[in-house]
Amino acid sequence: MTQQVRDIGEQGLLERLQRFCPPEIIGDDAAVLVTAPEQSLVVTTDLLIDGVHFSHVTTSPEDAGWRAAAANLSDLAAMGAFPIGITVGLGLPGDVSVNWVERLYQGMTECLQKYNTLIVGGDVVRSPVTTLAITAFGQADPHRIIRRSAAVVGDAIVVTGVHGNSHAGLQLLLHPELRQNLNDAEYNTLIKAHQRPQPRLDVLPILWEIVETLHVTSLHPVAGMDSSDGLADAILQICRASGVGAVLEHRQIPFPKTFDSWLTEEQALEYALYGGEDFELVLCLPKELADVLVQHLGQGAAIVGTITVGSKVLLHDKHQKFPDRVLSLSQGFQHFSQ
Amino acid sequence: MTQQVRDIGEQGLLERLQRFCPPEIIGDDAAVLVTAPEQSLVVTTDLLIDGVHFSHVTTSPEDAGWRAAAANLSDLAAMGAFPIGITVGLGLPGDVSVNWVERLYQGMTECLQKYNTLIVGGDVVRSPVTTLAITAFGQADPHRIIRRSAAVVGDAIVVTGVHGNSHAGLQLLLHPELRQNLNDAEYNTLIKAHQRPQPRLDVLPILWEIVETLHVTSLHPVAGMDSSDGLADAILQICRASGVGAVLEHRQIPFPKTFDSWLTEEQALEYALYGGEDFELVLCLPKELADVLVQHLGQGAAIVGTITVGSKVLLHDKHQKFPDRVLSLSQGFQHFSQ
Predict the structure, then answer these.
(1) Residues A181-203: what's their mean pLDDT?
(2) Contact at 8 Å (CB) between A295 and A308?
(3) For chain B, give me the number of helices (H) and strands (E)?
(4) Which B residues 136-175 touch A at CB under 8 Å?
(5) Is there a single domain that holds both residue A101 and residue A120?
(6) Is B9 left (phi over 0), alpha (psi -120 to 50) or beta?
(7) Domain finish residue from A143, A163, A190
(8) A130 annotated ligand-binding residue
């Protein structure tokens, strides 16, 4: 019979999970971490509830763990911070299998290891619903913090990669019949985009090197956030926090090529703008920096628009196939005000 | 009608809760905090579930908030760390009243303000069960970290205050008829000990001043933890982590005076050793330091025993009313091996 959490208890489970944590850090009232001098501490937290944010049914425990860790590391990347460690609070019903929990931790640590970070502490408790509380810690040069509120009129808006893949992957998992439109490689790319999203911590050293080597006139702090809640949301949040507007050019938004075979142009745009969970970075910076950054990043990185005066975020189509549209936070794509 | 969480949504609730957070810190992907140079980062996390760790029924939301914050600050104190801030992840069913949530945050911030710290970030999500995930982070001089594993044979074991008050307060709340044994002041002291426990961050500057001014021979790092899971648990955990034993003297364990009127001697000992949630510190340090520390702390601080070779924790009664007993982690007081 499958061993359940209630069979080994909280203490027994903690002992099983210790192999995912560095032994020199755990085992006391709190974890002690060494931070680099002259760095600011950056902290972010997420609470994930079974049935709301992940599903025992459609998500493997490894993928749920990976995605939870990736989302928090992406929040750090969005601030310009490199991860130091995460804490994991886990609430579990007694009938969850021990194997499920170990696989969840396996997925988390796989993601963390890729970015040289660790689980440094946690808590395991009984709960009627499986609950995952992650707090991620990072450090950043205080002069290189990326804030939502720093966008300036004239900035180019850069996306670090294509958008819509993760949502497409989810749709393929929910509606297997859609697979017939794609070959295996295309299918696997979209599924992986959903199951194993990559926080874009790799962008930071590239960005800072460009900022340092290019002597840009009128350089201001880079503005940005991640696109975990969708590309439209990211741009709208940045504009709101910075007190500016934006014009996006429909034809510059990079779509996955594989969308052509099974989505209309309108659907593809909806996936890209509102799909969410692509965990790319959306950055606002002077055009001359943006050009070099996009060139260095490749792989779907693009300038998708420009920061403008005002507060509206306009979507423009230079082919004039679609009329100009105003994006809004509260309304999804289907409720566009025209 | 009482406004419920579902009436205003997650975004609406977040806006209501922003008044409990410093505006310059929240509103981005993560919080940015300045830490002191040369300090280590200390991190601790707790997950609290309605019906398991607190109750909508017997605990006011202010007290639940205070206790949750206090428990995490106590973990920092137990490491020798001063708090920088906490993050709060909150999972809520739609039918929780907005007022309940605001009162919970009120209780948390009351506790935090007393210790000059803040809520610096968080997450509010939908959940079938009210869930509170707190991560507290602090900073400590790396040479003054208090670890469970640092106890040395011959150390005096200091408690920073009386034990059993919190459990007594809980019993009085659960069994109102017990109140008849106490006057109002006595009753209120015990209730408050349960509802508003005080993390002993105040002990740290006193401890360090004594360590600095007294030139103790053979000084080693101070060992210790907090007594959140009971005094017996704290001593047993320290002994296990340090590879040592201990002898406790029954007559040196400080009991609340108010126990005499309604508890047997055996019950009083049980409350003190196993009651839990008193959030005092249990420290192991050279006798000459311990004497000065106890004198400075007053208010129930006492040397309750000595660290010995071996691994057993013995409870000795110099009046020989009780036989020597061995304390154990897995068994409560009622299951003493004799």
Answers:
(1) 95
(2) no
(3) 9, 12
(4) 136-138, 140, 142, 145, 147-149
(5) yes
(6) left
(7) A143
(8) no
The domain tally of chain A equals 2
Kindly state whether residues B59 and B181 are assigned to the same domain: no
Torsion sign over Cα B53, B55, B61, B67 = negative
Q: What is the pLDDT of residue A218?
A: 59
Sheet containing B281-285: give its strands across: B223-226, B281-285, B156-159, B302-308, B245-249, B313-316, B325-327
The predicted structure's pLDDT at residue B1: 67
pLDDT in tens, B247-265: 999 999 998 888 988 999 9
* B318 located within any domain: yes
Single residue among A98, A113, A143 that ends a domain in this structure: A143
Tell me which residue range forms the domain holding B221.
Answer: 146-333
Q: Can you tell me the ipTM of this complex?
A: 0.89
> In chain B, which residues have their Cβ closer than 8 Å to the Cβ of A201?
none
Max mean pLDDT range (A156-165, B44-53, B172-181): A156-165
Q: What's chain A's average pLDDT?
A: 91
Residue B330 has pLDDT above 70, yes or no: no
Distance CA B59, CA A128 (A): 20
pLDDT of residue B116: 94
Q: How far is B51 from chain A (nearest CA, A)?
A: 9
One-letter amino acid of B99: N
Q: Is the pLDDT of residue A334 over 60?
A: no
Mark whether B78 and B166 lie in a shared domain: no
